[in-house]
Specification:
50% of the residues lie in helices and 20% in strands. The protein is of the alpha/beta class. It starts with 5 loop residues before the first strand and ends with a helix.
């Protein structure tokens, strides 16, 4: 059974207390006080839901009592009915000013008394319920805001963006929109080098910038990590200006690192397509150019979908491919022109996929670099190469040729890289000169100081370091001055123009002479014809790699090449 509301009758007249108590005790738990001080004591110790207060009391009268109640936190919400003599309008006015909710006038009528008390309590309860509902509504709004906002930047999150963007585009069907997907190349590196706080500053800066781009015409969101998406009218979208403004905002932070945003753009043709699909298409376009030194944005086209399906197949199967050793090691010989013999090899990898067939590195290496799987694949290749070198020792009594392996740039952020390589060399009973390490020019350009530091550690342990594809990107004399490598592998683009361009020939000759002065060797890649070979030889190159001498061969076939060379050399003694 519900408890009765507690009613306090405050009047110095005992007969008034008795009459009112008799009228109200059926519906209320009735307390009584004969003056203001006793009423305050009662309200201080008891839960009182409504008070009936006489205005004419000795000492603290009713007006003074209501004044104290009004300024006392625990009593200020108690509704008050004032007892007034009929026709005493001045007292009624004062009581209203002090917050009295209603009046009971003498002589008392039982029905009027009950209804007025009930109405006061009901009205107060309604006001309380309204206040409670308002607070609950505010709480719901705050929760909804929290649920649809990114905790770090305050932008919309993924789910809210899908909903808001759909509403925006479908409401304004006469406006053409673009979905633009942004992220940062190698954002993990920023967190690793400068700690997460710096990464969060970068994200927050982008979070302040993107709302200024979309203004009142579009919306923006942070999906997760360094992924931001905007929905903006096509006629207001200037991607080069957006990226330029973003660059300036990030550069203002003074972080000693080249932080570059890339963007993929999907031009919306049907506003009623699912927004998550639109974002997927924009993301596909982004993935085609992320990390590029040529362009920083791309528009989606349908051919990208087919490529993505193929890439998803490769990502789906990469773990089982590694487990089942579908990745096979190929060797491409490095040939010494002067001594006319194989003096080394570069280890390459092919994926012999059970349904697709042979997959070349150009299709899966960039994909694995973007998802981090390249670190595990590299280690798989390194171990297979060490096994191959050990087999040379067992067959020939010595190592006929050292083999170089590629070290992808993500490996440089593993603190155990050097120890892992030294562990492999020790495991297979090799010496460090037998395993050469190739890095790419782009890896150096991303983090020159870090790459230089790691290369010095490699060389201190006896590893030879080769720079692969030199000349394919932003090679400079400064790079040659700072980079402590043992061998430059000239990019095949030089080879293809050798003999056809006087400028190329001059550059090649200069590189040969300069590398000799710096104590570096040079290997020219991509030699495919006799004409190219003659030009390269005339310019002073001693070592080549390319189809003219040998295509990449499976490891067992390359071992046969070494066996034949060994037999020839023994016969010539």
């Amino acid at each position: 059974m519900d408890e009765k509301p507690v009613l306090l009758i405050v009047t110095p007249h005992e007969e008034d207390r008795d009459v009112l108590s008799r009228y109200l005790k059926e519906d209320y738990e009735v307390l009584a006080a004969k003056d203001g001080n006793e009423a305050l004591a009662t309200m201080g110790s008891e839960q009182v839901d409504v008070a009936v207060v006489a205005l004419d009391m000795p000492g603290m009268d009713g007006i003074e009592l209501m004044t104290v109640m009004k300024h006392t936190e625990t009593m200020s919400e108690i509704p008050v009915l004032a007892i007034a003599n009929q026709g005493d309008h001045d007292s009624e006015t004062n009581a209203v000013e002090m917050g009295a909710t209603d009046f009971i006038t003498k002589p008392y009528h039982p029905t009027v008394v009950r209804h007025r008390v009930r109405n006061v309590l009901g009205g107060h309860e309604n006001e309380w319920r309204k206040a409670l509902q308002s607070a609950q509504d505010q709480k719901i709004m705050e929760m909804q805001h929290s649920m649809e906002r990114d905790y770090l930047t305050g932008l919309y999150n993924r789910e809210a963006f899908y909903r808001k963007a759909a509403e925006l585009m479908q409401t304004n069907r006469d406006v053409l929109y673009d979905i633009v997907y942004f992220d940062i190349s190698c954002f993990k590196v920023i967190n690793d080098l400068f700690h997460m706080e710096t990464g969060n500053v970068v994200l927050n800066t982008a979070g302040f910038y993107f709302p200024t781009v979309v203004g009142d015409f579009g919306i923006c969101a942070r999906f997760e990590a360094d992924h931001f998406v905007i929905c903006i009218p096509d006629d207001k979208m200037d991607i080069e200006q957006i990226l330029e403004g973003l660059d300036k905002s990030i550069q203002s932070l003074g972080i000693n690192h080249n932080i570059r945003f890339f963007a993929g753009i999907y031009h919306v043709e049907d506003a009623f397509l699912s927004v998550d699909r639109m974002c997927d298409w924009a993301h596909i376009a982004l993935n085609k150019i992320k990390g590029s030194y040529v362009t920083r944005y791309a528009y989606y086209d349908e051919s990208m979908w087919e490529i993505m399906v193929r890439e998803q197949t490769l990502v789906r199967d990469m773990e089982i491919g590694l487990y089942e050793k579908q990745f096979c090691i190929y060797m491409q010989a490095i040939y010494d022109l002067k001594h006319k013999r194989v003096v080394g090899a570069e280890a390459l990898v092919r994926w012999l996929h059970p349904t697709i067939g042979t997959v070349l590195p150009a299709y899966f290496i960039p994909l694995f670099e973007s998802n981090g799987f390249i670190v595990r694949l590299d280690r798989y290749v390194w171990e297979a190469v060490c096994q191959f070198i050990k087999e040379q020792k067992e067959r020939f009594g010595k190592v006929m040729v050292p083999v170089s392996v590629n070290v992808s740039r993500l490996n440089f952020y593993n603190l155990d890289l050097l120890q892992y390589l030294l562990g492999l060399v020790e495991k297979y009973g090799l010496e460090t000169w037998m395993l050469k390490l190739e890095i790419t020019e782009t890896a150096y350009m991303d983090e020159p100081e870090k790459i230089i530091s790691v290369i010095k550690e490699f060389r201190a342990q006896g590893f030879s370091v080769l720079m692969d594809d030199f000349g394919s990107g932003h090679s400079s004399l400064s790079m040659l001055k700072n980079l402590p490598v043992d061998v430059l592998k000239l990019d095949m683009s030089f080879t293809h123009e050798a003999g056809h361009s006087h400028r190329v020939n001059t550059i090649l000759k200069f590189i040969m002479q300069l590398s000799q002065e710096l104590g570096m060797e040079v290997i020219v890649e991509g030699v495919e014809t006799k004409q190219q070979l003659d030009v390269i030889a005339e310019l002073g190159c001693k070592e080549i790699q390319g189809y003219y001498f040998s295509r990449p061969l499976p490891a067992d076939e390359f071992m046969k090449v070494l066996e034949e060379q060994d037999e020839r050399e023994k016969a010539s003694l």
